[in-house]
Amino acid sequence: xxxxxxxxxxxxxxxxxxxxxxxxxxxxxxxxxxxxxxxxxxxxxxxxxxxxxxxxxxxxxxxxxxxxxxxxxxxxxxxxxxxxxxxxxxxxxxxxxxxxxxxxxxxxxxxxxxxxxxxxxxxxxxxxxxxxxxxxxxxxxxxxxxxxxxxxxxxxxxxxxxxxxxxxxxxxxxxxxxxxxxxxxxxxxxxxxxxxxxxxxxxxxxxxxxxxxxxxxxxxxxxxxxxxxxxxxxxxxxxxxxxxxxxxxxxxxxxxxxxxxxx
Length: 263
Fold this sequence. Notes:
about 260 residues, alpha+beta, four-stranded antiparallel β-sheet, 9 helices, about 5% strand, globular, disordered N terminus, transmembrane, membrane, transmembrane helix
């Protein structure tokens, strides 16, 4: 697919070229996916996924477009105004926010149906662009430069993981409350899967910066929030079950106390 941007070989400038059919079909998938979560009483997952969509919208439209002016949207070759940009970014942010946060939540929770949720998400990311070729040429192009904030993202990632590792070290000799390597792998995987699907399907143009964009974004952009997401999940599960019923504290049986005293 053609692109409107000439990208510096050293610059990370994530760009997407797509058509209206992509937005329509993807919006339908997101609604169906949320309905499946609700059908299976994954209310906490659905709520957290919607929370992710809202956060992505605030960051993308409010942060990248309004504040840092690093986000641009072109429709039919013309630079879109604030209104057109908002609707494109609302769809894009809700789509990837919902799927990313659902992906993370079911992995952190070790959901019994995790393999099905992840298959649906990854399969759609990979196949949707091929289906949307039926909609004709790409007429919508989005792009953002990352030089203004990737450095700060890196600082947030290092600080957040450092705090988590210090907390784990304080618990040395006890059972770790989280495997930090697994947490990092989840954060890397979710971003890598959709970055890779965009690249191989031509939604994201192939150029000298493609590999660097794929690796750096996967290591950084979703991963920086993983310690915070784990903390939210940890405290949420202490209060609520997946179906939003109140979580009951574990009941210690008399035999358990006697066994502990013998240790």
